[in-house]
Amino acid sequence: MRTAVALLACLALLLSPAPAPAEGPQATYVLRVPAPMGDSAQRLLGLGYDVLEQRDGADLFVVGDPRTAQKLRSDGYRSTVETAMPPSQRAPRSLGDATYYGGYRTITAHLAHLDEVARAHPGLATVVDYGDSWRKTQGVGGHDLKAICITRKSPGDCALTPTAPKPRLFVMGQLHAREITTGDMAWRFIDDLVGSDLTAMLADLEVWVVPIANPDGVEIVESGGDSPVLQRKNAHGTCTSGSRGVDLNRNAGSHWGEVGSSTNKCSETYRGTRADSEVEVQALESLWRKLYRDTRAPGDTAAASADTTGAVISMHSYGDYVLFPWGWSTQKTGNDAALRKIANDMAALSGFTAGQPGEVLYNASGATDDWVYDDLGVPSFVWEIGAGSGRCGGFLPPFSCQKDVHWPKVRPMLVSAMNAAKRPY
């Protein structure tokens, strides 16, 4: 009863005239918005709303503050309150803490973990510094961009060359900083690769893991301590009416600047000033070109060759989806049948839904998974991990949900991806 009363109170607030700007932290709302796939969904994205990677029939979900419902109404969309998250009164974490929000590891702990694994398992693991975050390039803090290569080492393994002897699976987390489930999944995968039956699979496979692809953004998230900041983007730029930064998953140079991205610097889907403008995206693309052969001719319908090896997984949250190119259009790729089979195989292990983004969510351009397939022909997938509601749903599930709920679903998908990377087409 109290929950129902609270939601009715939130709804009344959202439907009332816009309040004057308030001091201090504001409540955050997830709004259910009728927006069927097609023009309605794409228009919603084009208006710059923070649209989640989640769909329920004809409805999408938008994150906002108490004024967002009014703005939606003025733009021709109805909305209802799905969830309301009151501002926390708890203190932020201390700078020396290795964890926040009940056990999630900080960016400093993640980077230290890579070095610790490499020291403990020199025959398996190699840490690679592949660039610097935006803040580090500006001399205002920031972090190294780091990956770990894990394999049973033989000559030529973990070399930054596309002609290395073994196929490669690449897995990354927290490209969107607030998606904290994905960093934890990467941590668990690294430990599993060096300490379980998965190690036996590394004789003829390299696994590359980037646990934190957006360290500046993650630093903003963790600064809230027990009340993590819902920062999606990196830290490059300024904004007076929203969050700063560029959406790294709208900045990649595959159909950059088209559907599902925004020119508004305060939008959560702000695409940046040009394709590949962000150092984090540049560094990832440079690394991928060093790890994979280009096996696909130019053109949206060209197929990659049958001898292509490898796969790239970008972990996101939430929605319980396995997505594959193209994301900018519902047009099929030249390798659609193979991509669809791999995605369906992974989804069957987890209960997720597989499809192109435009088939199950909406179209969006400038995504890294489109870039990987577009530029190199390597199969690439996005996993949206976690339900939209319930105790373990959303962006900020209790830490216990990672071991008890998410990891039992994600681990079998990772094993499936390890097998698929050897001969995907």
From TrEMBL:
The keyword Zinc applies. SUPFAM superfamilies: Zn-dependent exopeptidases. Residues 1-22 form the signal peptide. Belongs to the peptidase M14 family. This is M14 family zinc carboxypeptidase. SMART domains: Zn_pept. Its cofactor is Zn(2+). InterPro entries: Peptidase_M14. Residues 103-420 form the Peptidase M14 domain. It comes from the Bacteria. Keywords: Carboxypeptidase, Hydrolase, Metalloprotease, Protease, Signal, Zinc. Residues 229-266 are annotated as: Disordered. The active site is at residue 384. GO terms for molecular function: carboxypeptidase activity.
